[in-house]
Amino acid sequence: MSTPPSDAEARRAIAPVICYPTETLPRPDLSLYRAALAGARVVSETLAPPRDAASFRVEAGQFFRISCTGGPQVGDLNLWNAHDLGERFYSGKTRALHGTHITTGERMWSSFPTLRPMATVVEDSLDWYGIDAYGGSVHDVIGTRCDPYTGNLLSGSQYHHCCHSNLTRALADATGLSLHEAEPHVHDVLNVFMCTGFTRDTGQYFMKASPVRPGDALTFLAEIDLLGALSACPGGDCGSEHSSDTAACHPLKIEVLAPAPGALEGWESPPPNGYDRSHGR
Residues with Cβ < 8 Å from 257, sequence gap 6 or more? Predict the structure, then answer.
């Protein structure tokens, strides 16, 4: 370790500055969304099996709800523009705007150059959890997804039911793409129900057993037409490991709900970002 300078403590004591103040972000009308959700009806239901993934489609202005059914289980969620796989969920920018975990009223933002809301959290039955004594919270946009490449790097394994591979298969099945064509479109996830944080001493990403229980749910409004894929993580509640054939795993339910006609009066699907893309030329 290098020798600390004489003003080391003064440097550490400098107050932080929030990188992206969000006071000017467009705000969702949650009262309108909730009223529309209250009268919405289920139009489709899909199960993501344990250690596998399922795809689903949601029209702009519909809701989708991810529910815990059989037991504590976390899920890895990918979202794409249903008409353009190039527009997909951008976890890094979502993290920069909302923090390491998202909850009610916060949004999943899309990649450049569109950078617009893809989905808005309308209800979160785990919003009571907050931030625990370890710095852990629920629904993270930190982790990337368990994948076979890191497993191979660390242990030489060939594990095929990690979330990355599950999402790749689900996207290929949903689109007719080959596995090799689909894989580059799989991206960093929203870790639904997963309880995570960073250790204070080493700054390492940690996970702990999720507080999710049967009946808990996370509900979104689709701001644009969406294709989604959800993997029921092979780590179960991720209390011990995240790529496992022995952890207790359970299915996750995805419901799509259509609001009554006129229930979202005044709402409009957000347009692509207004930057002119001239990049100074």
Answer: 37, 40, 41, 42, 43, 62, 63, 64, 65
Q: How many domains does the chain have?
A: 1
Does residue 278 belong to any structural domain of this protein?
Answer: no
Q: Has residue 137 been placed in a domain?
A: yes
pLDDT at res. 264: 98
8 Å CB contact between 139 and 190? yes
Query: Do 231 and 254 form a contact (C-beta atoms < 8 A)?
Result: no
Give the pLDDT of residue 134.
95
pLDDT score for 244: 81
Tell me whether residue 150 is in a domain. Answer: yes
Nearest in space to 255 (alpha carbons), one of 213, 226, 220: 220
d(CA 231, CA 76): 5
- Give pLDDT, residue 119: 99
Print the domain residue range for 84: 28-258
Angular region, 170: left φ>0, alpha ψ -120 to 50, beta rest: alpha
pLDDT at 10: 98
Selection from 151, 178, 177 nearest residue 164 by Cα: 151
Supply the DSSP string of 236-256, one letter for each residue.
TT-SS-SS-SSS----EEEEE
Q: What is the pTM of this model?
A: 0.96
Cα(240)–Cα(160) distance, integer angstroms = 19
CB 69 within 8 A of CB 212: no
Q: Is residue 271 part of a domain?
A: no
Q: Please give the Cα distance from 171 to 177 (Å, whole number).
A: 8
| β-pairing verdict for 75-81 and 226-232 | antiparallel
Give the chain's residues under pLDDT 70: none
